[in-house]
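Worked example 4.2. Below are the chains of a multi-component assembly; read each line carefully before continuing.
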Amino acid sequence: GNSVTQMEGPVTLSEEAFLTINCTYTATGYPSLFWYVQYPGEGLQLLLKATKADDKGSNKGFEATYRKETTSFHLEKGSVQVSDSAVYFCALSGVYGGSQGNLIFGKGTKLSVKP
Amino acid sequence: SQTIHQWPATLVQPVGSPLSLECTVEGTSNPNLYWYRQAAGRGLQLLFYSVGIGQISSEVPQNLSASRPQDRQFILSSKKLLLSDSGFYLCACRDNYGYTFGSGTRLTVV
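Applying the procedure described above to all two chains together yields the following structure tokens:
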């Protein structure tokens, strides 16, 4: 079935380090791909998305490129900040018919950035 | 833009007790509504979704039920909680503008 496999955490980095969180997916058709972020005590927020192959989503210094050939959507940031500490979820949607349109999530990766 | 109110933020309940988690949505009408759960070590799993008042679909067999008595109200319930019901519960809304999530409820069944 359709699924998302996400790098296990937790990930601990020093400020200004380079971040990569791996995400691969299994899906029929052409799903849309998302990264969501959950800051402590808050709900999930959309960080970035890509709707077709080779699209690059970007926001707040984070980037992810939709790679159909490797079925991947890895999240990267060149220089993390303490304020980036959160849980990051990779997700896909759009592979179902009908109107339910739910998201399929990875397990989440907890990122801690130390000053 | 839409806003989701979900409460409580944390809840500790004994085994066998009932459960009611409520989610209300503002700023949209006729959205699709979802309940997700994240158990320890697992991803966010879809439990229920609703495309309209009184319309509930269940994704997995379980000890829980859902109801949608009003367009912007979605309730997750159980008559008797099990230890395995512990987890993080998220309500979500989808309309033409995309998805919005509540802040979640951390449920611990003891």
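Take a moment to check your reading of the output against the notes. The CA atoms of residues 64 and 75 of chain A lie 5 Å apart. The longest strand of chain A covers residues 86-93.
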